[in-house]
Amino acid sequence: MGYSLTYQPLTTQEKVGSGSLVGDGVPPVMSVSSKPVLFSALFTSLYTPLAQQLPREPMEWKRSYGRAPKMIHLEANFVQFKEELLPKEGNKALLTFPFLHIYWTDCCDTEVYKASVRDNMMRWQGNLRLHGSADWVIVVVETSDAKKKNKTNILPRSSLVDKIRNDFCNKQNDRCVVLSDPLKNSSRSQESWSAFLLKLRTLLLMSFTQNLGRFEEDMRTLREKRNQPGWSFCDYFMVQEELAFVFEMLQQFEDALLQYDELDALFTQYVLNFGAGDGANWLGSFCSPVKSWTGLLLRRPIDMEKRDGIQRGQASLLELRSYLFCRQCTLLIFLQRPWEVTQRALELLHNCVQELCLLEVSMLEGALDCWVFLSCLEVLHRIEGCCDQAQLEANVSHTVGLWAYATDKLKSLGYMCGLVSERGPLSLELNRTVDLLAGLGDEKAETVHSLQSPYKKLKEALSSVEAFERHYLELSHAAVEMYTAIGRMRSARLVGKSLAEFYMRKGDPEQAESFLQNALGSYVSEGWSLPVTHTRKQMAECQKLLGKTENYLQTSALLAGDANLTNEERIHFCQEILTFADQSTDSKGKQPVALSMSYFAQLKQLQFRPATATVHSGTALQVELCLRSLMPVAVPLEQLAASVHFNLEQGETNGKTRGPQRRPYPGTVLFPLGNSSAMPPSAAVPSLELEEIQDRSPSDPRTLNSTGMVCKNTHLVMRRRDSSPSPDTPNLVSPVPVVMEDGAKMLMSGDVTLLPGNNSIVFSSQELGTYTLRQLCATVGQVQFVLPHISPLVQYEVYSQEPQLTVEPLTDQLLAGLPQRAKVRLQTGHYTVKKGDALQLTNIDSIPILTSSSCPATIFNSTRVDESVLFIQSSDKVTSISLPPTPPYHTLEFQLEVLCVIPSDPVRPENQRLTNGEIHHRPRSYSHPDNHMTAINQRMSVDCPWSIYSTPISLTFYIPFKAKHSLLSAGNSKQSVYCVWDVRWKENMPVCLQCVFSASFSSASEEVSAFKPYHYEFQLERVTTLYSVRAEIMPAAGQQNCHSGSLCGLEMSITRLAEPDDDEEDDGGTEEKGQTETEEVCSTKLMYEVVDYCSSWVVYGRSSGLVSMPADANANHRVQVELMPLFAGHLPFPDIKVFKYLPPSANSASQPDTDSCVENGMLSLIDRPLDDQGDTASFCSQGSVHSVGSGEQQSRVLPMPRLEPFSPGQVFNHSQGCQVLVLPSTDDCVLEINAT
């Protein structure tokens, strides 16, 4: 008895539970031959456990072409063996193919085997060989009951199996399997059963793999014949779909989906080739007119109706696409990828629209919109049926495209069927609606009981105006909310713009305005030029219906200057503005409508004449504007006015003379086009960064397959831009109020006609002051076009200059004592010099004016030069200069000869501090920094005819000689004064010696007779040398020389050279004998200080102290100080300073200890010249007064001792300028080298 095992196509059913999708199907079938009643009962008992246990264990399926192995479960069913089940010649079917044929026998008797069983087996194998089937197996079932019945005639089991193998399985011993007592629970039976199941799975998988490989090879062969005549895509479709069914039956949904994707890609390529002119003959069946547009049907796993149409070659393009997407959708849901369904659905719907156009398929108008609408809703309902609400809300981005597409198609159907107009549908539109509904056919059984089925929604929406509006608004608002929720604002505003069009068609502009404003704002901010123009046209229509005149005029101005419109459209909107302006002229008392000039014209250039933008009063300043009119026709202006602002800070002179101010621009100002361009600067889209890409053949790099351009900065170009444009830009959604400033001064030009393109307008101004251009206003009837801000700032100035009188030397320096010439310059400014006007100079003794009766004068301005003569009259007190007539804003120049008398006393620097600490005030003089000549400022006053005030004039003269005296001390009582002469005396030196130095001089260019006298007076006081100071630096004990870093000794000796005179006693520097009981000798207290200004020495211990010098001549006092040299070399001696110590004048009982005062730096150094104050910085920095003692003592002001410097020459320092040799501390030299 024979049985055949075969696979049949799955009848896939969907089971939905807990949001997941699972698949189930009918297992493969096995054919069974006729058998006796006895064995039929045995096989029936084996069928159930065999069918159940066969798929329990997975098997590794190794595929060809290097594809990864997979674990699969084999399911099978057994059918009775029939010859008609065997494949015929040319039959390529895989689903009905019997993969494995099994012959079951329980024969144990040799006679029975020879008589009937072997013949049956031979016939069975003969049929298999006849049909080319080599996948078979013989199963020998061993039962204990059969052994008992035929115990005498049976052969051993091994002998029967060996005989069967010899007869039928000579080279394939594994094709004969023994099954021992399968209905018993013994261990032997279980072992035999398990081995049988493993063998059956192995043979079945081997047969399936071999047959599947042959089927794939046949399918590839058929596909490669696609370019041959007579090849049919529908036939090939059925073949490859059979392969997909097999994969689906094996639960390999990914491989099954791949087969449908390949079919999809192959068909799409043929359609594209057809559009390019390379069409296939079999495509003609898909070009037939479409008569049914029922949309997608995703509730059936297999739409057998459409599949039969494809198999017969009678399916339309929409039917093929619908069936193909239905199968893809089913497999994607099995793969738990429902969101990919929505993505593919959107691509499918758009591609179908294009394919219908490429294939030129005829359809009823609106039929394609119906199909797209139904398909969108069907996909959405299918996804909603397999996902919960949380998943839907989290994946809105995948479904919102279908909502928006359905909304758009429903709107198109509403326009087509007359459901959006105010009057309702006409008869023609009603007939079209009936035809569209007829093409939908009857509702499918799967959706009959659904209240929200796509079929019912479309039919209801097309039934009435109210129903359509309800469904359309529901879909539109849902799409807007979804786009907004996921941040796709562009798409949300695009749907809103579609809603605005709907409301406009319904005659409700108030509802449409807000949607148009949102869309326009988005387009403007992102710089989309064409959408801005289109939306602005709709906005203009909406504003006109709402009666918003100002907004409508502003939008009309924008559209009139928009280059994206045709010339006729621009003229229409420009005429709207002119018509309103003409109508408003008749109505008096109305406020003018102010619009932005940026919509009307562009300010390109401004030019001043003269270029400096500065003129004096009485001269006209011209301002020329270059305006580029954006209007398509000539526009007559009543006036064009420029508002100017008077700059108070610069405009007021406060009675002072002001000249023209320099401007930062050379007469011409260019204005950026961004001031009134078509797009705001903030909305400027970044420039595209394009790069060429090339696809070359891998085998031959010289062969170019394709080329293209790719944008490298797509993230910047496509980025959202919500920044608001500037108020000066013409792209604002709602108008910004623009007004002219109240009370502003105006530059006006009347009766101006602006032609399209560039226009030149000239303004004139003569008012005094500095002005800034602020605004520009063009008036057309009651319409004003205002430019609220002119940027960059532009200023011009009309100035009134006061007369200016200056006196300048003709040479670099005026020398005192010699006649010098000076140039007098008079800038008349706004004043006109009349005949008889004169300058009155007040004479001073130190600078007489050397006059003559007349002198030449020059009168000039920037364009001409004239010569004239002026007359000079001089008296004791006043010099009068008669001026020639001179017009305003001219310059008058002439020369005067002056002489400055050299002062006879020596000139000291101003505010010189004397030795007693008082400030000595002298005439204003100073030294020139370059030549060190002493300068004297001489001032005089001039009375001018244009002012009631005198004008001061200052001239600086330089004394050509620098004379000074110094007293040089020789170190003994014999004194010499070195100057130009040598003065000696025989008797005692006088207390004060008066000296006068006289010389005659002249300029090197003058003659000898032109000598002028020069006197220098000075006096010498206290020139007697009182003390001498000697110093000696000695090395440390045991060393011959000083070393750096080692202590040395400084021994200084102070010697009195003469007994104190009366002046010294009067200064309080000498103490009278008898002040104390122990002190019997008169003495003078001196203060010494050791200071090193060269930073070569460090003084250890006290660097200063008091010395009591006896009043006897040649009295000597020695002081030792420790020093440390810091450097090696010949170092100069430290400076030694000696001062007079003046005790306080109060009672000595209240004075603090002198030594403590010296130690704490509490002495006051006073009455010293400014040049010597730096020598006692160590004292001055400590302060002149310090508090000592308790708080009660601090509350009283105590007199303090003072220091007074000696006059020049009174102290002679023998060691001044001496040096001492200092050796280095060690002879070692360390050289540090860094190597890198």
TrEMBL record:
Residues 41-341 form the TRAPPC10/Trs130 N-terminal domain. Residues 805-957 form the TRAPPC10 Ig-like domain. Pfam families: Ig_TRAPPC10 (PF23604), TRAPPC10 (PF12584), TRAPPC10_1st (PF23036). Keywords: Golgi apparatus, Transport. Residues 992-1223 form the TRAPPC10/Trs130 C-terminal domain. SUPFAM superfamilies: TPR-like. The keyword Ligase does not apply. One of its GO terms (biological process) is early endosome to Golgi transport. GO terms for cellular component: cytosol; TRAPPII protein complex. InterPro entries: Ig_TRAPPC10, TPR-like_helical_dom_sf, TRAPPC10/Trs130, TRAPPC10/Trs130_C, TRAPPC10/Trs130_N. It comes from the Eukaryota. Its main location: Golgi. The keyword Ion transport does not apply. It is found in: Golgi apparatus. This is Trafficking protein particle complex subunit 10. It comes from Oncorhynchus mykiss.
